[in-house]
Structure formats: C-alpha cells, structure tokens
Design a protein that fits this description.
This protein is mainly α. Helix content is 75%, strand content 3%. Strand 1 and strand 2 form a beta hairpin. Helix 6 packs antiparallel against helix 7 and helix 9 packs antiparallel against helix 11.
Length: 496
C-alpha cells in the first residue's frame, strides 16, 4: 500500500469532486468534504500502523522520476518528525470543516480551499525532494489567501495581502537557495540532485553553507513566525475565519519549525551551530515579547494570536539548544501547540457566533450563561499554559530543561514565558467567564451538539497526550536523536 501518496492526495480527490459538482447542494458539499477529510484521517491511521517507531530513518519511501533534466523526483518519506505533523493535520481538518458548518457563502469553494490546503500541507511534510517540497510549500499560499481574503472579517483583504507578501518574501530566498544547492550537488558521485538525503552529505564551503542556511532560515522564520518577522500573524489570525485560524495555527506555522529541523539542521549543521545563539536569542525575545503583548490585548482572538508568537518561540529555542530534551520537546510542542491553540480559536469562533464581538470589555459572565463553553475554554487555557497532566506541560518542561542545560540564562528567560502565559490566559478567562453578564449577551445558548462533537475529540486528545506523552515521544525520539547526532557529529568532525 502506497500510504504516503494515499494520505497526500485523498483530500485532492475531494477538491475535484467539489469543483466539478456544480449541482451539489451546500449540505451535500459539506458532507462530501467531511467524508474526504475523514477518509484521509483513517488513511493516516494506516500510516501510523505501518510506521516502525523504533527506526530512526525515513520509512515507506515512494520514488518516481518526475523530470530527468533537471533531476526532479516524486520522492516521499516519513520519519518521527513528520509523522505526527501529518496526523495533526488529518485530525484537525475534519474538525475545521465541522466548525464551518454554518458558512453559507460560496460553500463549495470554501471547502475546496480547506481540502487543497490539507493536500499541500501533507505533501510538504512528506516531500524528500527539495523542489517538490517547494512546490507543496508554495501551494499552501493560495488556499489560505482565499480563506482569509474572501471569508475573513473586517480588514481581511489587508491581512490576506500582508500574509501573501511576507510569505512570498521568504519563499524567494528559499527558491534561490534550493537552486544554488542543486548546482553545488553536481559534485556528488551520482550528479546533481534535489534529494535531501543525498544533499545532507554534500561538503560545502563554510561561507556558502552559511549563506544558504540564512536563506532557508528567512523562509522558515517567516512561517514560524519568529520575531521580528511575526507582524503578519496577528492580522491574519484576527481577520481569518475560524477554520482558517485553526489551520493557520495548527498546520501552517508548523511548516516553518519543521523546515528548520529538516533542512536547516539536516543540510547545514555547521552553519546551524554558527547561528544557534543568535537564533535562540530571537526565540527568547519572541517568547517574552509575544506574552507581554498578549497581556495588553483587548481582542480575544488577537490575544491568542500573540500567544502563538510566544509558544512557537519555545519550539525554536528547543530545536537550537542542541540537547536531547530540547530537540524532543520542541518537536512535541509543534503537536501540542496545534491542539491547544487550535481549540482556543475554535472556542473564540463559537463565542463570536453568539455575541458578534471579541472585545473582552464587552464580554463576561459566560460561566453563568454558557457553562459548557466557558468550562471548555478554561480547560484549553490550562492546557495552553502548561498545567501538569495536560499536553503542553511535558513539551514545555523538556524545552526549558534542554535550554537550561545549554544556557542557564536563556533557559531562565524562556521560563518567564510560562509565567506570563498563565497571566494572559487566566486573565482572558476571567474577563470572558466571570463577572456580570452584559445585558446584550444574557440569553445566548450554550454549546450545541455539533459544537460538542467538534470540541470533544480535541480536548480528549489534549488530556491523553498530557497523561501518556510516550505515545508520541517514543516515536519521535529516534528521529530527533538522528537529527541531533548529525549536528553534533558535524561539529566534532570539523574540530581541530
């Protein structure tokens, strides 16, 4: 069974069905999209079952020659780093579709954009050919641009254009670097290639490697986003529809961090060491800055957007600490952040559907009027701030521990982000759920059955991963160790 191709292109089949089915009713289109996304999730479970968690290399590799000159391959593979990012994507897309059930404007196009985004995301996580990766990486841009620009709120056009320009800025550096790397790979025994496994063995001059590392880094730092390249994110999140915010937080941002692990560390280990301290400092600034700015927000959705800047800083500093705990914790936090922040955006969308406002000063008392919704928000906030027993705790603990082992100063500064996170999340809950009920919001209904179905699996998974993190850690660890060993051995080999 070609599991990788199946998981990658099943959503695309749903896109085709939606676009050619012009006579489909809105309900039929919703059902078709949901079936396509659920089928993809089931296929990803087959991928999980076929994956050998004890192996550290790429598995289930699929290869076919695409172009002979230049040598471009259809080359897919999965390891412990990419496996759970694929599973996170396939798990949350059906959730996003269910959360969008009330969307009534151009329903088929809306659902097609979500499914197209899913195919592009999975393809990017699985691609082992650099040019193929770039094509999937860029294909993400268009459906997310549509989701923000057509179905977003308020300043949606501004937010969509800003997202587009920032992403294209980074992608320009990435494309040039890929082409330079391809030309340099002509020195390999088998000739020029885009295969990342072969390119990892390419002996580059130190200066060239550093320039290429910088170009890759800019592209992925924009996507993370890492301070100071983060300014597009709060606008995109604030104006995006609920499903767009969920997928932006849970999937698109992870591609930046994934790219740093897969390509920056995998292809340029010496350069990674050269820039590591500077990157860690930027990550710490992002952790503290994102948290402090989140505290100052009055728009609930914008507050959560800035929390992503802070939380993704933890991922980056863990990766570049070059410790086992930091690397494993950083990869685990990609998954944890997708679940907890995705759930927060779902809940904000549900609040907005009822109240038509996200201003915390205009909200309050939902614990009385909407007890289930407020309880779900509190549970998710506690998960996001790293309460022991919930999913974020283990990842943040590993990151802080690993960073502290590398640098006590940076580890201590990173730990302040945990404290600040508790401040802005608990403050947001207090403003949303406690206090008097505004007269305009006194009669809003609590969670519907559909909304319970949307939230329940996400909240349950946050609890499961909090209580049994080894379900993920045991499969991540061999691949994380391989990445770390590659960086360490390179430095040792270059030492006099």
């Amino acid at each position: 069974m070609r599991w990788l191709s199946l998981v990658t292109f099943l959503p695309l089949a749903g896109v085709v069905a939606l676009l050619i089915g012009r006579k489909l009713s809105d309900d039929a289109a919703r059902a078709a999209a949901l079936v396509a996304s659920l089928a993809t999730f089931v296929a990803s479970l087959g991928l999980l079952a076929a994956f050998d968690g004890s192996a550290d290399g790429f598995q289930l590799v699929e290869r076919a020659t695409w172009f002979r000159s230049p040598h471009v391959q259809y080359l897919l593979g999965v390891d412990g780093v990419s496996l759970f990012l694929v599973l996170l994507t396939t798990f949350l897309v059906p959730v996003a579709i269910l959360a969008s059930w009330k969307v009534s404007d151009r329903v088929r196009l809306y659902l097609a954009a979500i499914l197209a985004l899913e195919t592009a995301s999975i393809g990017a996580f699985l691609a082992l050919d650099l040019l193929l990766f770039f094509l999937f990486f860029e294909a993400l841009l268009f459906p997310m641009y549509l989701l923000i620009g057509i179905w977003g709120y308020g300043r949606r056009v501004y937010a969509a254009v800003k997202f587009f320009l920032f992403t294209m800025f980074g992608s320009a550096f990435l494309l040039v670097a890929i082409l330079v790397l391809y030309r340099a790979s002509g020195a390999l025994p088998d000739g020029p290639t885009f295969d990342v496994r072969a390119l990892a063995g390419l002996d580059l001059p130190a200066t060239t490697a550093r320039w290429l590392f910088a170009a890759f880094f800019v592209a992925f730092a924009v996507k993370v986003p890492l301070f100071p390249l983060h300014t597009w994110l709060p606008d995109a999140h604030t104006e995006a529809p609920t499903a767009g915010s969920v997928l932006l937080a849970a999937v698109l941002l992870k591609l930046g961090a994934y790219g740093l692990v897969r390509f920056n560390l995998g292809l340029f280990p010496d350069a990674a060491h050269t820039f590591a301290t500077a990157i860690e400092i930027l990550a710490v600034i992002g952790i503290v800055y994102g948290a402090v700015v989140a505290i100052a927000q009055t728009d609930l959705k914008r507050l959560i957007a800035y929390s992503s800047v802070s939380h993704l800083g933890f991922v980056v500093i863990g990766i570049f600490a070059f410790t086992r705990e930091g690397m494993t914790g950083g990869i685990l936090q990609m998954v944890n952040h997708g679940l907890s922040t995705g759930a927060l955006f779902l809940l904000v969308g549900m609040v907005y559907e009822r109240t038509h406002t996200r201003e915390l000063g205009e909200l309050g008392g939902t614990a009385t009027t909407m007890p289930l919704l407020s309880a779900a928000f509190l549970f998710t906030a506690l998960s996001s701030l790293g309460l022991p027993g919930l999913n974020n705790f283990v990842g943040e603990f590993l990151v802080v521990t690993g960073t502290f082992a590398s640098s006590r100063v940076l580890g201590a500064l990173a730990a302040t982000g945990v404290v600040l996170g508790a401040i802005y999340l608990l403050w947001a809950y207090q403003r949303l759920a406690q206090g008097p009920v505004p007269a305009a919001h006194a009669s809003h209904p609590d969670l519907s059955r559909r909304e319970v179905v949307v939230l329940a699996p996400v909240l349950a998974l946050m609890l499961v991963l909090g209580l049994a993190p080894r379900l993920v850690l045991d499969r991540i660890q061999p691949s994380a160790d391989r990445v770390l060993a590659g960086v360490t051995s390179s430095v040792q080999g270059s030492a006099p």
